[in-house]
Amino acid sequence: MITPRPRRGDQLLFLGIMVLTVTVITLLFYALLWKEGNLIDTPNLKIGLYSFCLWDEGTGSLQCHRFPEAPGMAWLGLALARLGIYGSLVLTLFALLPLLMARCNSNEGEWQMAVGFLVTASTLLAGGLGLFLTYVWAWIRLSLLGPGFLALSTAQALLFLLVMATVIFPQRTQDKSKLESC
Question: For the whole model, what pTM was predicted?
Answer without folding.
Answer: 0.85
